[in-house]
Amino acid sequence: MSEVTPQLVVDSTMPLNPVVSPDGRWVAYAVTTVGRKERPAGALWVVAADGSSPPRKLTAGTAKDSLPRWAPDSASIFFLSDRVERGTRQLHRISLDGGEAEALTTWKGGISGHLPLADAHLVAVVAADEPTEEDERRKAERDDAMVWGERVPYGRLRLLDLGTRELRVVDGLGDRHVAELAQRPDGGPLAVLSWAAPDLDPVDFTSELHVVDLERGKVRDLGRTELEASSPTWWKTGGTWHLAYLAVTPPGPVGGGAVFDVTVHETDDTGDHRNLTAGMTVCPSDLAQVTDGPPLALFADGLDTAIHRLDPGARRFQRISSVEGFAGSLTASRSGEVVAALASTAYEPKNVHAGPPAGRLVRLSDTRPELRAVRWGVQERLSYKASDGLDLDGLLILPAGKSRQDGPFPLVTLVHGGPYARYADEFNLAWFPSGQWLATAGYAVFLPNPRGGMGHGHAFAAAVAGRVGLEEWTDIVSGIDLLIADGVADPDRLGIGGGSHGGFMAAWAVGQTDRFKAALMGSGISDWGMLVATGELGTLEAGLGGSAGWEGPGPHPHDRLSPISFASKIRTPVLILHGEDDTNVPLGQATFFHRALRHFGAEHEFVVYPREGHSFQERNHQIDVLRRTRAWFGRWLGDPASDRAPAAEENPAPPKPRATPGGALS
């Protein structure tokens, strides 16, 4: 059996962006590396949708080839690549038969989105304006003062004429940033989702839906969408066209995903944006447009995933099949008779699967065959009650080679991010400390799905609004207590960790109890008010923390929900990991927590990763995270391989924080 090393985890590939050809015969997808080295790279692959022939590599993978989109005749594929200029993506086209890819644009600043149109001579692209002479002068003179609202690089809708290679802007959208496109299946107008600016405004997160008639040059506004709108999808019933989209249920921003729908009248009336998933106890995650019928959708359903089809008469989604574990990135053929998605089960990583939507999806890609040579920890489904009687689920991964009868084990609880995310019954191995990474080192791992996450409907997701760290915390405790009572977890060797919202929960946990012997706070929140002030989601974070801080002199609701408020009580050793360039949860959150722990003399280690954002990309940093976190839990929970708890003398007093190479602090 193979050993699970950090290199095995990060020196691997993963499939992305599967898309079924319009005729349903083929699936194209991108494959990229997990850990980024010198230059990000990705290749395009194509495979027969029925699995009758093996996958075939279309591009070499020496550049970052991504976002494949089929031509209407299913004979070629359009995609974005930075092969001409590193870091600048241009539109390319390659034949289904392979050969040399053809560069179609040389737009300064690059192309951010594209959609081949029914008119085979045209492609809709999204690109910011090219730099003007004044822009170039300012750049040369280092006149780079940033004035809010000025010189915004709006992604504008443009049409590329494949014959002349001319790009012309589509008027009528003004200074709106084009986020997503979808053409009506009959070759008619475009649906356009737009934002006020390329980066979501941290105070006003409104987006708008438009219909763009390319023939008449007319733009109709269908009004504001609900929050975080995506995936515009056309469908027709009784001769009337509709547009559906995914968004967050009102009042938002807490409450989970929903499918909204608006009737596209012949007049300029905007109509109501109706929630088609109200009252459902599952959560939509993907929409797929079908030419000759209603849309298909993926729904997170507890630990599994289901495929639904919209019933046009009832205006409700109906389940037509189930997918074990995780499925995402749903795509459909023109007829809707073939779908493809990325899917993963407990011991199989994400791969491209395809088949009929009401039948079994067959695996088409095999990007990580080397993982089959590893003995993984047994992954179990858990179902239990919260302290208030709410039904909960989660996963338990036992140490590799062990059964429940071999317990109790040192237990590490890993809390997912979001909080609107979930643990599906999928393969849990990733560069951030994951279930199998720790299970193969001898730990039992608890992966809880507390309230606030997806997979159980709106009310379950909305339960944390203004209440983060309260009931969701006791949900996690209930699961841990269950595992202790069952003899799986050693109550004297408990650890907790997570990233983003999971990092918040780890920081919150150690301020509420001393029962954990070690904690990991990855890219986590320590102060909700400061996150409103500096995080890219701005005021949306007040929906979780309960206030922004500008409501008056305080105290504010978010103060009692912020881990920083409980720093004086922390006795658990904490490992803090954070990216220096994180804009989602800025570095100041970790720095604040680190300074508080220093002030109170709490055991901790603080590590900052240069050039990294909210999710780390560089290979060496990913390897460091894997090694460092195993070592941290090993130091405080003992060596699981020898089933030996740490002795007092094995835990010397920590050194004072010092600068380490690369700018990290430890």
TrEMBL record:
- What InterPro entries would the database entry show? 6-blade_b-propeller_TolB-like, AB_hydrolase_fold, Peptidase_S9_cat, WD40
Sorted UniProt keywords: Aminopeptidase, Hydrolase, Protease, Serine protease
Q: Name one GO molecular function term.
A: aminopeptidase activity
Location of region: Disordered = 639-666
All copies of the Peptidase S9 prolyl oligopeptidase catalytic domain together span 436-638
Q: Which SUPFAM superfamilies match?
A: alpha/beta-Hydrolases, DPP6 N-terminal domain-like
Name of a matching Pfam family: Peptidase_S9
PANTHER family, sorted: DIPEPTIDYL PEPTIDASE FAMILY MEMBER 6 (PTHR42776:SF27), SERINE PEPTIDASE S9 FAMILY MEMBER (PTHR42776)
Please give the name of this protein: Dipeptidyl aminopeptidase/acylaminoacyl peptidase
